[in-house]
Recover the amino acids of this structure.
């Protein structure tokens, strides 16, 4: 079923340059969120006209947004249909996870080198008891939000714009499977231990160990994905 933009709620005014006229960047961020979370499902048609009308922007801005989404492989052009939300198959997803392992390894290494132990006190608290409690209480959204916040801090600490751009491209195309992998039997419990191990190595200032731990985390996620591939995709 195609999702029409008239069904989407309006953006928060805080995202706009001025009331009723968001920037191209704000529209891009909003659409990336909807696509990566599957609010807009694969195969959903997206047109310039609909984007312009839904967000109250010019056709030129809408064209710019769609071009960026296409560049990030979040939409694709199909003859006689126009732009649609891209599909991601198991083979492509597995390859993306391989790339993510390498990118995460470098991100964690740089983050370790660029920070001091006290910079991570808040994340030590977040990855402590609240991290377990969110899982125990079935708050998967809250649990994943903590992971995303940690990963965001890592990218920020790495302080490398090119690396951040590449990491975000991979993340946007794997976000749905990241959530589904987290729901697989035993995976989230294992992830708690692994994320804590990554942070512990960072706090120690051991970049080699931190990179090793994040790579182990990514490899185990890939193994789970293959084991339960019929559920993941």
């Amino acid at each position: 079923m195609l999702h029409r933009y008239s069904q989407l709620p309006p953006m928060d005014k805080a995202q706009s340059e001025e009331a009723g006229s968001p920037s191209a960047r704000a529209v891009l961020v909003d659409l990336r969120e909807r696509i990566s979370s599957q609010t807009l499902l694969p195969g959903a048609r997206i047109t310039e006209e609909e984007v312009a009308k839904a967000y109250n922007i010019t056709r030129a801005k809408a064209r710019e947004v769609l071009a960026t989404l296409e560049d990030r492989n979040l939409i694709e052009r199909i003859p006689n249909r126009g732009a649609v939300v891209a599909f991601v198959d198991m083979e492509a997803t597995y390859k993306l996870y391989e790339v993510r392992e390498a990118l995460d390894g470098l991100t964690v290494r740089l983050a370790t080198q660029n920070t001091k132990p006290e910079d991570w006190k808040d994340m030590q608290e977040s990855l402590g008891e609240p991290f377990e409690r969110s899982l125990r209480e079935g708050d998967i959204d809250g649990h994943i939000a903590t992971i995303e916040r940690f990963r965001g801090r890592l990218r920020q600490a790495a302080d490398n714009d090119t690396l951040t751009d590449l990491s975000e491209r991979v993340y946007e195309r794997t976000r749905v499977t990241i959530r589904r992998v987290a729901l697989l039997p035993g995976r989230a419990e294992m992830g708690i231990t692994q994320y804590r191990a990554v942070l512990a190595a960072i706090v120690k200032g051991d970049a080699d160990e931190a990179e090793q731990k994040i790579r182990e985390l990514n490899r185990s996620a890939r193994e789970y994905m293959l084991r339960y591939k019929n559920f993941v995709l």
The first helix runs from residue 24 to 36. The mean pLDDT is 86. The chain has two domains: 5-85, 90-232.
